[in-house]
Amino acid sequence: MIQTLTAPAPAPLYVELARSLEQLIEQGTLRPGHRLPSVRRMSLQRDVSISTVLQAYTLLENRGWVEARPQSGYYVRPRLPMHAPEPRMARPMAKPSYVGVNDLTAEVLTLATDPSYVPFGAACPHHSLFPTKKLARILAAVGRNDHTLLGRYAMSSAYDPLTREIARRYLQAGCPLPHDELVVTIGCAEALHLALRAVAKPGDTVAVETPTYFGFLETIQSLNLRVVEIPTGPRTGICLDATRDALANNDIKALMVMPSYSNPLGSCMSDEHKENLYKILAEFDVPAIEDDVYGDLHFGERRPKPLKAWDTDGRVLLCSSFGKTLAPSLRVGWCAPGRYLERVRRLKFTTTLGTPVVLQKTISDFLRNGGYDHHLRSIRRAYHHQLHLFSQAILRHFPEGTRISRPDGGFVLWIEMPPGVDTLRLHRDALKHKINTAPGALFSVKDRYKNCLRMNCGLPWGELIEAALKTLGELAKKQL
Amino acid sequence: MIQTLTAPAPAPLYVELARSLEQLIEQGTLRPGHRLPSVRRMSLQRDVSISTVLQAYTLLENRGWVEARPQSGYYVRPRLPMHAPEPRMARPMAKPSYVGVNDLTAEVLTLATDPSYVPFGAACPHHSLFPTKKLARILAAVGRNDHTLLGRYAMSSAYDPLTREIARRYLQAGCPLPHDELVVTIGCAEALHLALRAVAKPGDTVAVETPTYFGFLETIQSLNLRVVEIPTGPRTGICLDATRDALANNDIKALMVMPSYSNPLGSCMSDEHKENLYKILAEFDVPAIEDDVYGDLHFGERRPKPLKAWDTDGRVLLCSSFGKTLAPSLRVGWCAPGRYLERVRRLKFTTTLGTPVVLQKTISDFLRNGGYDHHLRSIRRAYHHQLHLFSQAILRHFPEGTRISRPDGGFVLWIEMPPGVDTLRLHRDALKHKINTAPGALFSVKDRYKNCLRMNCGLPWGELIEAALKTLGELAKKQL
Q: Residue A106 and residue B349: Cβ atoms within 8 Å?
């Protein structure tokens, strides 16, 4: 580990300024709709430079406190009412169980790409949020500049310039990784699949958070593994005591976990929480399969460190992709498998042989010259803004007593409706209105989350979305 | 099955003409180096049209009997001496055994893409044999015409226009397939991987030909399956009696087979042989995983029918890709899983989720407008010619008593040297001369083929290749 990257530094001036303005908003001194002082005026008022004010305002914007209106200035955004409570944590579950095949998952995902449905179901941002024009230009240039690339087998597990870019970004995030220990995969899906096969064999048990991404459950099922679900809070992440209990009482071969902006809860573990989780894993000598696919989508100024940053003995298999941030359709992901590197490499060879180099090079060129950081800033802002708008609309239209998660990153919400609502029934009803949803039942192997729903907020706001949310709310209310 | 497509038709005139000329060559009336009569003269001589003669000459060229020399005419090619015997068939093997991890396979494949080695090892044609310029243009156009494609998730298992093209081609080959029963995969590797997982679970036994493609053995090993090897002849394919014995005496969950131009032998089963093989599979109720990746690379005028053409009850999982014919780096393959369709679809979802649509569309557009058939004709000619040149050079340089396969399609040769030669040792020695080979030991889980070698002939002929073959031959002779 490189010490200088991980040591805490004193907060810069603009962060201090942003914090003090946040307080004014929280206290109600600056109220929703109020215009912030102009940059110049604030600079004089606080005796700081213009650029410090600009940085502070951008930070407030990233965090969702204010919004910029062109030619007008920065305005305080409407906040969620204080009484919108967050969803509750599940009770612990002890016995490992096999995962049943879930036809609903297939249905939700198939409809996700059907343009005639409102796509609340899958966690896919709208294509307009990605720099597809620029990507298409780079893709064309890659083919034009070396068309022989298209005739060469991609047999090794990674395109070197791409893995260097990925490793460089992890270094910046406080997680140094040797670039040649990365295996490039077909999206995060293949990374997770290979990682699971590297650590567990059929009949083995793995642990997951609950609620958890249904793709985890499907992959676990496809490999004939058993699963133990560990309660996870909507804000702080996996419960450490329950984790310790689960590892102590079961022969668990791996923990599959999303420490930064989990899907569906949106929880993000603190650094301390991650460190403690790692210690528990080390104590019981259990590897972790970390899905970090939402890690770059933080609303705060700092990208959360992956769990892998604490990994001193190669037990964390870090999996991620560009699917949520840059190019879902290119299906370029990666795995940093730690001590399982050789095993994952061999499994990659027999599973898909290689990842198309033309796509790896397209992404690598984008990372180097395409303004990836600028793009990330803009989608973070967009996702944050959309989560706000969705939350407000849900509060307006959904049954009284509905709880909504308040994630600090990503683009999904976890919604807990009153116990009388059955979201499986709601899903069927909503399909008739051409609305596709992801009912809570998908997110557990147990009879849980029957009144819950995961909401894809990666959709540009508009009347259609508001109308669909209203319809959903009305259908839910009818059940009560 | 569509009867009209499979019923035998009387041979057209040009085929008759080609046959009579073949006889003249075989009898020595037309000898190597002789010029064929000009097209006009032959047309008058035989009283057929100019176009019939042209078709006949092209057919002779495709079959390797003659070669065209620009501005000069068609010349009879040098034939292999009659005394170059073909390799022998292995003796049967009864007991199933697990496959050991083979580091050599990884080495051979890694070096296959290292430009500093002569790539005799992997079965990869040289990139100059593929229409990479045209592919790059189409790829660029696909991105330009609809850049939003790059921002859309590829969640369903296939891009419809591509599967229609694939199905259309199988129909032409006498194997009607509903296009919506095709799953598009990451190359043939993923197709084989998914097919195997659909039919067998860890501990189960599958049967393969011997010698067999080492990728099969690696995939089988990665899934903790056991294997039974069935003797296969270098010309006619898998031995039916041995197949029947193997299925009768073992609980075999699937047969993995390459009925058309197998890798490494190059054998192609006759229609009758395929039909009988299918009957045996049906009798013992065993599915077949058919690798058809070389099927389009026939030197004769007719594309061999896949085994799938006889499949009346969905027990054949047909796997293939464009990797050997059009675009190895794009990694677009497919599986027609018959009765296992739903299982393969679900496994695809948890393994790689989807196949990049931009690549599927590029290939689909090429198939529709890029002159794929024209391209196929030209690489078939090239492969055929190269096999000839390689065979002759091997006869010149390799130890006396060397046997060489004589495939009617594909681009690999199977070489059996005298028993005193150890090709593993030869492999190590050759690496010092920057020559990468695929020793026979890779192609079986048993101690077999120690004096055998698979040769990649998908390389444009030149002095470097000749020199490398000479070096290989000298190294082998030194062992005797």
A: yes
